[in-house]
Amino acid sequence: MQRASSDKDAASESDPDFAGQRPRCHIPPLTPAPKARHAAALTGVIAERRVRFWASVLLALGLGVQAQAELPALPLDDHAAWQAVGRVNQAGFNQKALCSGTLIGPDLVLTAAHCVQGRNGVIPLSRLHFVAGWLGGDYAGDSAAQRVLVHPDYADKPGPSDIALMWLKHPLEVTPFAIHAPQPGIVAIMGYQDNRPHRLGARFDCQRLSDTQLWLSCPARGGTSGGPVFQQVDGIWHVVGVVNGANSTASLGAPVGDWVLTRMTDAP
């Protein structure tokens, strides 16, 4: 199991939808760890036991093998409805990185903690940038970061505390998504993947494999970290979590909870 942030030099990736364009970001390769081979096929009590086991492996070891499965590209005709989902770009000397994120306020982005914090603390704000609705060079809005707040329990591992808020220097003219605590039932995940960094990937048929964690049947790959977990509440799509770990059979997310609800009203 690995974090789903981009673990390759994205400039070396070839995006089949936008050949010849160069993405802006990468993250150094992650150290391999055991792979969850069966999570997507498990059900009932056996599923819950194995999910708990692999969740403990993920939380103990943190990182894993590169995911080979990917999210299908979102149809171009549907892209406008999801423009609040965007890329969290990180750039610095000899380093570029790609994550995903979602506007939950005009100037507020929900993403994964490991997308905005390194081993030495929060990444300098001058290196963090959000681009909403990125599609092959077109976008709905963009801004540099003004402030970052990481969950206080984050410990450099995927899981429920790998979540962060990023305030932007200026609000974007993009309708943000509302947030909600996750409920039982089907969810969707989205993100910009390292093999297709110029087009949003999405799945709308993800099963929750655990009642206690946001462990999902949909696989993802590098770049998806920080991307939203969506769920329909009263017929309206809400952000209920953030993707922060994935392999070729499953993904793990941090649920929207009290910390997000309390801190999102802070002044930037």
From TrEMBL:
Domain of life, source organism: Bacteria
Residue spans of biased composition, Basic and acidic residues class: 1-11
GO molecular function, one term: serine-type endopeptidase activity
GO BP terms in the entry: proteolysis
Keyword tags: Hydrolase, Protease, Serine protease, Signal
EC numbers on record: 3.4.21.-
InterPro entries: Glutamyl_endopeptidase (IPR050966), Peptidase_S1_PA (IPR009003), Peptidase_S1_PA_chymotrypsin (IPR043504), Peptidase_S1B (IPR008256), Trypsin_dom (IPR001254), TRYPSIN_HIS (IPR018114)
Region (Disordered): 1-32
Keyword Signal: yes
Pfam families linked: Trypsin
Residue span(s) of domain Peptidase S1: 82-265
PANTHER family: SERINE PROTEASE
Family per record: Belongs to the peptidase S1B family.
Protein name: Serine protease
